[in-house]
Amino acid sequence: MSTTEEATINPDGSTTFNDAGDGAGSAGAAGEDMPDMGETAEEIVKGTDPALYLALSVVAFIALYLFLQMRKKTKECRSRRLLFQS
After folding, report:
1. What is the dihedral of CA 11, 17, 20, 22, to 10 degrees?
2. 64 pLDDT exceeds 80?
3. What distance in Å separates the CA atoms of residue 79 and residue 77, rounded to the nearest whole number?
4. In the Cβ-directed half-sphere of 39, how many Cα atoms lie within 13 Å?
């Protein structure tokens, strides 16, 4: 008494089981056991991408570096002006 089932995967990711046997199992029960994955997929999409945090931190680091370099150059220029004023 062997029953074989054929599973069909729908475009939305859900599955449908077709019984080839005598129908001993409930064909509708297979769909009831699986939760709706649509809400879970939407929750994942709503999260912020970690690459965005990485990109923002790189931009902040570059801005800080440029700010410190500009401040260093202005200090050097001021000290040279004072040196050559005398």
Report:
1. -150
2. yes
3. 5
4. 2
